[in-house]
């Protein structure tokens, strides 16, 4: 009984990741074959399941998913000392950058609340158990569902294709709804998010801070949201091409910081490396140095590696050749370079571990467990908590692969 629940959860996580990867690699047609999760961790406790709430009236504000349906969120109320504290976690799941792949997406849970699960497990940073989530377990915890395809930041439409690109309006309608649910009295708040949601938590960080009372303590956490404007294995810029399409199709430039747009083109301002210096609210970057999503979809997507010479390495880091590892070390060096200025002020936080991972705050095994990843002897949950509550300055950067034996590396079949 217990085991079958664990299996279900692993399958769910596998499907999540496969979607995330295939959803973006496939710019319309060719998708990577489904990958299966083969890490042997098990989840020790039955996760709490939390119901979906649709945001009634959001449509009258133009805040709708790609297919015009209402956006939604999952909320579990805080209790005791956490009753006036709010964690908002933005869901991830790639982007859509063409009419064609946005039309595909609008018939999935990433583009329509018709297909969203009615209940989802709250694990890791969303867990309601102190032994799984020591600092945030009794806060009001919210997962905001992602159904716009542009990191909650677009604002346009394509009538002919029946597509609404209303990420920014969804973000605002959700904030308004949560304010009326009690967030207007928040004493403490943390905006987090993973992957495309981790990028959104950077993009919306200062806005979030400005919506909350002056007296409240507000910070932001980006998990696996530090997408680099990197050169891929064919010498091109696969992710820049993709981001360029997202920004243009969904008119994201309307919602990018003016301070960045005055210096760079809109697509560049969608890349965190050019954005984080414009964020004034305290921000924490949690990212694997060998982010497997970026390896698979930005560095060596099928379009950049038509012969598939990276396939073995992409599915299991243990199978990378020494020249491939060298390429990945350059990627890590670029990431460290790009966070150098960001890292200087004491209010910012960093946890860059040398693992082959993606989204380490949502999964219990990577957030806080007996064998979860460590840097400077701290699990991720403790590093984030120490930073949020100003117990310590946290700027944790790992030594290069393969020195870290606390990783939970993802392996795909
Ligand atoms: C969640 O939804 C289920 C039906 O899907 C319902 O039985 C249950 O009471 C709901 N839980 C809460 C806390 O509203
Ligand atoms: C990949 O690595 C695993 C583990 O080291 C090994 O068992 C497997 O044979 C390797 N596969 C290839 C194609 O090299």
Automatic annotation (TrEMBL):
One of its GO terms (cellular component) is plant-type cell wall. Belongs to the pectinacetylesterase family. This is Pectin acetylesterase. InterPro entries: PAE/NOTUM. Residues 1-23 form the signal peptide. It comes from Cicer arietinum. One of its GO terms (molecular function) is pectin acetylesterase activity. PANTHER family: NOTUM-RELATED, PECTIN ACETYLESTERASE. Its EC number is 3.1.1.-. It is an enzyme of class 3 (hydrolase). Pfam families: PAE. The lineage of its organism: Eukaryota, Viridiplantae, Streptophyta, Embryophyta, Tracheophyta. GO terms for biological process: cell wall organization. Keywords: Cell wall, Cell wall biogenesis/degradation, Hydrolase, Secreted, Signal. It is found in: Secreted, Cell wall. Hydrolyzes acetyl esters in homogalacturonan regions of pectin. In type I primary cell wall, galacturonic acid residues of pectin can be acetylated at the O-2 and O-3 positions. Decreasing the degree of acetylation of pectin gels in vitro alters their physical properties.
């Amino acid at each position: 009984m217990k085991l079958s629940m664990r299996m279900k959860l692993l399958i769910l996580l596998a499907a999540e990741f496969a979607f995330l990867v295939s959803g973006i690699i496939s710019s319309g047609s060719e998708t990577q074959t489904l990958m299966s999760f083969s890490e042997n961790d098990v989840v020790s406790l039955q996760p709490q399941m939390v119901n979906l709430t649709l945001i009634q009236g959001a449509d009258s504000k133009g805040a709708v998913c790609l297919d015009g349906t209402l956006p939604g969120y999952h909320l579990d109320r805080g209790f005791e000392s956490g009753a006036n504290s709010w964690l908002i976690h933005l869901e991830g799941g790639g982007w859509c950058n063409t009419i064609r792949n946005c039309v595909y997406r609008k018939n999935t849970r990433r583009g329509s609340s018709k297909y969203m699960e009615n209940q989802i497990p709250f694990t890791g940073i969303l867990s309601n158990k102190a032994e799984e989530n020591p600092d945030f377990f009794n806060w009001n915890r919210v997962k905001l569902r992602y159904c716009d395809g542009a990191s909650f930041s677009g604002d346009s439409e394509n009538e002919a294709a029946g597509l609404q690109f209303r990420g920014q309006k969804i973000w605002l309608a959700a904030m308004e709804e949560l304010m009326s649910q009690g967030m207007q009295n928040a004493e403490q708040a943390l905006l987090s998010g993973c992957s495309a949601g981790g990028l959104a938590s950077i993009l919306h960080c200062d806005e979030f801070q400005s919506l909350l009372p002056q007296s409240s303590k507000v910070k932001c956490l980006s998990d696996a949201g530090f997408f680099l404007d990197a050169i891929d294995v064919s010498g091109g810029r696969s992710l820049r091409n993709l981001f360029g399409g997202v920004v243009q199709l969904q008119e994201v430039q309307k919602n990018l910081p003016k301070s960045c747009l005055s210096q760079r083109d809109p697509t560049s301002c969608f890349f965190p490396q050019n954005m984080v210096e414009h964020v004034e609210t305290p921000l924490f970057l949690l990212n694997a140095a060998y982010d497997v999503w970026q390896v698979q979809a930005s560095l060596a997507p099928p379009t950049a590696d038509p012969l598939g010479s990276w396939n073995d390495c992409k599915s299991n880091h243990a199978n990378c050749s020494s020249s491939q590892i060298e390429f990945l070390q350059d990627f890590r060096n670029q990431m460290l370079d790009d966070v150098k200025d960001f890292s200087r002020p004491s209010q910012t936080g960093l946890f860059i571990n040398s693992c082959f991972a993606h989204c380490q705050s949502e999964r219990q095994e990577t957030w806080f467990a007996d064998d979860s990843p460590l840097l400077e002897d701290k699990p991720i949950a403790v590093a984030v908590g120490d930073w949020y509550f100003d117990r310590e300055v946290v700027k944790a950067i790992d030594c290069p692969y393969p020195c870290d034996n606390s990783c939970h590396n993802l392996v795909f079949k």
